Amino acid sequence: MPDPEWRRIYGFRVVISAPGSVPPPPRRPFRARLAGFAAVVFALAGVVTIGVAIGAQVHAPQPADTGVLAGGPGPALARSLPLAVDIPAIGVSSGLLYLGLNPDGTIAVPSLYSAPDEAAWYKYSATPGQRGTSVIEGHLDTDRGPAVFFRLGALRPGNQIDVRLADGITAVFRVTGVRSYAKSHFPANTVYGATGYAALHLITCGGAFDFASGHYLSSTVVFATLDSYRRARLTA
């Protein structure tokens, strides 16, 4: 059996493989395997003009750091690829891109130029509704204004997130907690670590904008768990 391909993500040597596509990599310390995933929060920052950055800091809702991060036992769904995400409380309705790794091994994010209003499912995470952690990412803003997750920080515990799946089921999640993390202390284990329940984590940038580096200094993370699901209605 051939060895899995090794890649480097922001200096961390990790293995990532699509579920079901290749044999799993050799076991490594959990902390080491998760460290590389933190790189995604840096890639989400993008480059914005000074005027837009100032406006975003004034108007983008900031997380209240409320609620809890972990869910309890609940329903779970079979694996099915996600098609779209809807968050009624903040007016988000987006199809989902499937993104994995760039050719250089870094975690890919939606294009700031062609897809700032589309969220992306990280295709090496669980599908939404499966037991485990499913990750959806999106930009906060661009040099042209707000992007898909501009209002993510306004979510509060109890808000609903709907993810439509390819098998006709819509997974209904409830927000349990919202947090802001400095990127210099991003808790990769908390955000990307395995869970025993169906978890959904949404990620974007936030906090102050650093004009020297062209990046936001923090990340906004929304934690949600599967609450219920509904099947598409059949039409005659």
List keywords for this structure.
236 residues; mainly beta; Sortase, Chain: A; eight-stranded mixed barrel; two-stranded antiparallel sheet; 4 helices; globular
Architecture overview:
The chain has 236 residues and is mostly beta strands. It is built from four helices and twelve strands. It has helices at 30-35, 39-43, 50-59, 188-192, and strands spanning 7-9, 12-14, 82-87, 92-99, 119-122, 132-137, 141-142, 145-146, 160-165, 169-182, 198-210, 215-231. The strands form three sheets. It has an eight-stranded mixed barrel with strand order 3-4-5-6-11-12-10-9. A two-stranded antiparallel sheet has the order 1-2. The chain is globular, with a radius of gyration of 17 Å. The N and C termini lie far apart (50 Å).
Estimated radius of gyration:
17 Å
Strand percentage lies at 35-45%
Summing up helix and strand content along with how strands pair, one would put the structural category as: mainly beta
CATH superfamily membership: Sortase
Strand/helix succession: EEHHHEEEEEEEEHEE
In the predicted model, the low-confidence regions spanning at least 5 consecutive residues are 1-26, 45-58
CATH class: Mainly Beta
